[in-house]
Structure formats: C-alpha cells, structure tokens
Amino acid sequence: LQLSELSLRGLSIDAALTEDGSIELRGFQGGGGALRDWLGTFLPNVRRVTLRDSGLRLAIPGGDVLNLRSDLSLEREGNARLLQGELRGPNITLAVRAEGVGNPLRPRSWAGDVFVDARSAQLEAFSGLWQALQWPFSVAGEVAAQFWLNRSAATSTASLRFRGSGLRLEERSGAWALPIDALSFEAALDAA
Hints:
By secondary structure, the chain is mainly β. The protein has helices spanning 34-42, 127-132; strands at 5-9, 12-17, 23-25, 48-59, 65-77, 80-89, 92-101, 111-120, 137-151, 156-171, 177-191. Strand 5 and strand 6 form a beta hairpin.
C-alpha cells in the first residue's frame, strides 16, 4: 500500500520520555529504530501529511504528564519539502517551520532553512521535565527563544535569540539560588 496524502484530525498520541532522554511513542517499541525505519520508508514517498488538532500525552519519569495539542503539515514537491508545526499546552508554545531540498532524515543530503520559536510563561510548570533530564537545578520564570538554522552543501549557520524575565535557578537541595530579573542574548555559529 502506497499513500501519497494523509490527513488526520484529532489524533491522540501517547509518548514517554525515557530515563536516557529519548522519546518513545506507544505502539512503536522495538529497539529504538522501528519508528525511524518506518518514517524512512514512508516520508520520502508521501506528498502531503497533515495532522490537525492532535493530542500528545508525554509521560515524564517521576509520574508527571504533559498534555499538549499540536498541528503539523509536511508537504513534498519533487525533492523540496516544507514542514510547519505548532505544539502548545499550558505554559508553552513551540512553533517550527523548515523548508529545504533533500531528505531531512539524512542531514548530509539536506539543504534548507529551519526556524523554531519557543515560549513559556511559567518554566516552573516543567519541574518534572528538568528532573527527568537530570539538571542539577530547577528553573522558573518566563522565556522566549528563537532559533534559526541555514544549511547548504558547504556551510551551516545557526543563530539563537533568547529573552527571559523573572528567572530563578535553584540547586535541587536548596544550597543556592540565583534570581535573574532579566536576561537576553544573541549567539551565532558558522560551520564549514
């Protein structure tokens, strides 16, 4: 069976963040490569995939669950691909746009642009995630970050813009805390 277009509305996905930091989708177990192998066969041949108003339940070690909503579209015309998506939930919004030529599952063969916009009004709501990632401190406050990647055959350029306010970093045992009223920076990296 070969699909060229797939459109789903109201899909519900259960996933789990594992102790080693990887994400497992329920129903795609099997050595960590089963989903990647399936996507590697499916995505190069499909012209359009659209997921609207989907739900993602992400279980985090320690028992917390993030309930998120998402929209995603992937379009292919010839060797060109366009990915647009948004993930949103209480205290978080993550938007992604990627446009390029080649197979994104084989990064050396892909050239294009990626933009990610991440915002959270309440980082402390993700305390279970910080613990699962084994950060030595907790994080609280409000942030907005944008990330750009431009990749061509010869070079890659990555840029980051970060703004945070009312931030607080606190060591897990309470030995120290660092309140930060405001923090902003921009960074860029060029690689040949």
